[in-house]
Each structure stands twice: as C-alpha cells, then as structure tokens.
Specification:
This protein has one domain: Beta Barrel (Cyclophilin), CATH 2.40.100.10. Helices cover 20% and strands 27% of the residues. The protein contains 3 helices and 8 strands; from the N terminus they run αββαβββββαβ. The longest helix is centred in the first third of the chain and has 16 residues. The chain is globular, with a radius of gyration of 17 Å.
C-alpha cells in the first residue's frame, strides 16, 4: 500500500512537472497579447486563470490600474469600476522560481498572501521586489509570459491615467481565449 501511494504521488509530480504550457490570446481595444502560461511551475495559478478565461469572466473587463514603468493590472473591474464576482482565492505560488520580469504575468492580490482570485498584472519592467520572498515573506506569483504583443503592453502602460492610476479612456479586454494546452 505504501509503495502504491508513493508511486501515485510520484506519477502526479511527474505529470505536473511535464505539464505543457498553455497558450492564451487576450484581445484588447489596444491590440492583441499572446501569453504562454507555465502549468509546470504554477499549476494552480494557470488552472485558475484558464477557468476564468473559459467562463468568459475576463471578457468586457478593463485594465483598471496602469502604472508606466511598473505594471498594467486587469481581471476584476468593468468600465464603470464595478468588481465582477469571483470564485474563492487560490494558494500563492510565488515560490515557483519564476521572476517578475518585464513581460511576465502574475497574480494580483491584497496584502493577504493567499488572496489572489481573478486579477492579474503584466510587468512593464523587471520588478525584483515582487519576487519571492518579497517584502512580506511571500511575493507575487508569476505564472506565464507575453510571447507576442509586448508593444500592446507598452502602449497600454503609457496611456493617460487619472486618480487611482485608472486609464482616462477605458482599455477593454474584449476576449480571452485558450488557444492551446489545457
């Protein structure tokens, strides 16, 4: 019995480690962004993001927080600033070895380490201070990277913003589609 359990655990670990990347197309009013999500190193974050995408959660939401030279954040608010209902929060996977470098996508969260749900951000520059262990002993979990459309991220990052770093002209995520993988 002990060997069977060990064998099953090893098999699960091997299948997670060999998990194929997931390709996602994010269509925005500023252009398209193609993402490659790392299922092997951030399985919970990727599964969470993919499920929100398949549910159509991101469609019609905006990038509600944009800071040039830092990041662009979306996945939670509509054009009126209303937060869309989410599922339960997920475990913080920031210890996965992935870094908050320019062009990576990470889970947004509150000051509570395991509070990430649907919101994400794309790093506009290398943000080492967000890496594990970060300033709070946890950091922010990277779960993929931009493979095409970094010029779109750059365009969004320099948009004019008002109070709360909210773009003056809404930048809408029109559709998020899983095109390969899970």
């Amino acid at each position: 019995m002990k060997q069977l359990l060990l064998s099953l655990a090893l098999g699960l670990t091997m299948s997670i480690a060999n998990a194929a990347p997931v390709k996602v197309l994010m269509e925005t009013t500023e252009g398209n962004i193609t993402l490659e999500l790392d299922s092997a190193k951030a399985p919970k974050s990727v599964a969470n993001f993919v499920q929100y995408a398949k549910d159509g959660h991101y469609d019609g939401l905006v990038f509600h927080r944009v800071i040039k030279g830092f990041m662009i954040q979306g996945g939670g608010m509509d054009e009126q600033g209303n937060q869309r209902k989410t599922r339960a929060s997920i475990e913080n996977e920031a210890k996965n070895g992935l870094r908050n470098d320019r062009g990576t996508i990470a889970m947004a969260r509150t000051s509570v380490p395991h509070s990430a749900s649907s919101q994400f951000f794309i790093n506009h520059k290398d943000n080492d201070f967000l890496n594990y262990p970060g300033q709070d002993g946890w950091g922010y979990a990277v779960f993929g990277k931009v493979t095409e459309g970094m010029e779109v991220v750059d365009k969004i990052a320099v948009t004019r913003t008002g109070p709360g770093d909210v773009p003056v002209t809404p930048i809408v995520i029109t559709k998020v589609t899983v095109v390969e993988g899970k």
